[in-house]
Amino acid sequence: MSSVLLVLVFAVALGGIAWSLQALEKRAVVRADDDGLESAAVIAASLVQPHLHAADVLAGQLTADDIGEMQAAATVLRRDGRLIGLGVWRLDGSPLFLDDAFAEGRMRLSDADLQRAASGEPWTVHRVDPDGEGHLEVTIPVPSEGASDTAVASVVKVVLPRADLTPAALERLDRQQAWTALILLSPVLGLVLLQWRLRRRQEERRRDPLTGLLNGRALTDDCTRLLAKASDRRPLALLVIDLTEFKTVNSTLGHPAGDMLLQQVAAALKAAVRQGDRVFRLGGDEFAVLLRDLRDASGAQKRAESLLRHLREASFRVDGVDLVVDAGIGVTLAPEHGTTVADLLQRADVAMYQAKRAESGTMIYDASTDEHDVGELAMGTELRRALENEEFVLHYQPKVALADQCVTSVEALVRWQHPTRGLLPPGVFLPALERSGLMQPLTRWVLREAIRQAASWRRAGMPLAVAVNISPRSLLEDDLPARVLAKLLAADLPASFLELEITETAVMTDPKKAALVLAQLNARGIKVSIDDFGAGYTSLAHLRTLPISALKIDRSLISHMLERDEDHAVTEALIGLGHRLGLTVIAEGIETDEVLDRLTQLGCDEAQGYLISKPVAPDALEGWMAARAVDQGSPSAQVS
C-alpha cells in the first residue's frame, strides 16, 4: 500500500468517524427534544391545563386558588431539579401565570412566539445561560378548559434543565460513539500494522544480512525502475565487482575472517560512491554498483577506476592481519549494452572476467569480444527445437486441504526432457526462454497439455483440478480468456477443473489490464490465484478488487516461520487477510511436520510442498493417489 493510499484510507476513516459521531449527536439531540417535549406536555396537561377555565382566560386572569396550586406544584418540580421555569400567557400576550423564573425576567414569551403559537403546534428551543448551563424551552399552545372549540386560547412555556433531560440517552450516546470510533479505526489500524510488517519484511528481503548492503533482489527492482529513464544521453551504468584472491583469505584465516573482510569492503564501497549511487552485494565476494547521472561511457569508466583505486588504497585489518584488497570491475551501460537487468548483469560479468584476465582492473563490455553470446544463441536455438519436438514435460505437485487431508488439486510444473542432458529443472532454461521471447509459446503448450491431462484423469474417474502458472506477458494478452475457453471446450473439461496462478509482478505490471483479463476469466468460471504472495509488491487496494479465489503464501515466509517471529506474524496476518477477503489461503514449500501443524493451527486452508509430495510425472501421481487413498480409506481426490 502506497503512502498516498494509506493517507487516503486514514482520511476516509476519520471522515467516517466524524460523520458517524455527528449523526449520533444529532440523533441524541432529536431524542432529547422528543423526551423534553413529552415531559413538558405532561407538566402542561397535569399542572396547568386543569386550571385554564375559559371564563378566567377570557377575563385575563386566573383565580388565586388556581395560581396558588400551580405555584406549589412548580416549586416541587423545581426543588426536584425537573423544572427551571413555567409561564402561561393569553394569546394576546398578557400573562396568566408566571413562576419565580419568569417573574424575575429570566424567561419570557416573545411576540414571535405568540404568532407561532397560533398554528397550534408545540416546539422546542435549546438555550445556553450566561453561566454556561443549557436548558430546553418547550412552548405548547393549548385550548382553554371548557372552550367551545379547539382554537388556541393560551400558551404554556415549560423550561427544562437540558443536562438532566435524558441521562440514559446521553450515556447510550457515549457508548455508541466509543464503539463507532473503535469499529471504524480497527480495520485501519490493522492495515497499518500489516503494512508495517510487510514493509519491514520487504526491506529485510532487500538487505544482505552480513554486510547490510542491498542484495540481488533489490538490484533487480531498482535497476528495472531506473532502466525506464535511461537513454544514450543519460546512460545508467552497472558495475560488477569481484574481489581477487578472496578464497585465499577464507582458506588461510577462516570463514569468519572472510566475513569480516566482506563487511569492511562493503563499508569502503559505500564510502567511495557518490550520493545517489547504490551499492549491492550479489553473493560471495561479488558486489555491484549502480551509477546514475552519467554523461557518457567515459564517465562510467572513470568512476569504476576511482572505486578500484579506493579499494586498493584502503586499510583492511582482520584478526590482527593487514590485508590489501584488489578486484576486477566490469562495466555495462544501458541502453547501449542491454535494456534488462539480466542482460546487463550477464554482460558486466563478462567484462569483469575479461578485466581480470587482462589484469586491467576495469573494463567496459565489448560485444565483439563476448564469447558467451554464442552459448546464449545456442540455448535459444535448442529451446525453439525443444518446443517444436515437444521435449517439455509436465510434472504435477498435489495440494491438500489441511482440514481433512484430501487432495484438492495439483499444480502443473514444466520440465525439459533434454535429449542429452536428461531432465532439466525450470531454473536452468526459463531465464533463457524468457530472453528468447519463447515464454508465451511455452505457456500455451503448458495450458493445452495440463487441460488435456485433467480431462484424461476425469474420464478415468479421478477428477483432479489442475493449476497452471501464467507468465506476465501471457496474462496481458487480450485473447487469453478466449484461448483458455477454447482449450477447455476442445478437451470437454469444465472450467471448474482449471485454475490459473499469476504472480504479484504480473498484476502490478499493468493493474488495469490485468484486472480486465481476470474479470473475463472469472466470468467464464475459471479460478485465479495469486502465487508467491508476500514476495512481491501487490497493492492491498488492488488485491481487494481483483476477482481472485486464492492466495498462495510464498515459501520464503513459510520455511522460516517457526524460527523468525516476523515471518510467523506476517504469515498469520496474511491468512487472516485472505479469509476476510473470502479467499482460500494456500501455503507452499512445506517441508516439515512442525510447519504443517502450525499452519493448521493458524487456520490455513491448503498446503503444498515436498513433505506432501514432490512434483511427479502423471503416472507416478496416479500411483501416489491410489496409495494415499488406501492409507486413508477415502476418495483419492475431490474438486474444491
TrEMBL record:
Transmembrane regions listed in the UniProt entry: 178-198
PANTHER family named in the record: CYCLIC DI-GMP PHOSPHODIESTERASE PDEF (PTHR33121), SIGNALING PROTEIN YKOW (PTHR33121:SF70)
Organism of provenance: Blastococcus tunisiensis
Protein name: Diguanylate cyclase (GGDEF) domain-containing protein
GO molecular function: cyclic-guanylate-specific phosphodiesterase activity
Gene3D superfamilies recorded: 3.30.70.270, EAL domain
Record-linked SUPFAM superfamilies: EAL domain-like, Nucleotide cyclase
One matching Pfam family: EAL
Swiss-Prot/TrEMBL keywords: Membrane, Transmembrane, Transmembrane helix
Stored InterPro entries: Cyclic-di-GMP_PDE-like (IPR050706), EAL_dom (IPR001633), EAL_sf (IPR035919), GGDEF_dom (IPR000160), Nucleotide_cyclase (IPR029787), Rev_trsase/Diguanyl_cyclase (IPR043128)
Keyword Membrane: yes
The keyword Nucleus belongs to this UniProt entry's keyword annotation: no
Domain EAL residues, every copy: 376-629
Domain GGDEF stretches: 234-367
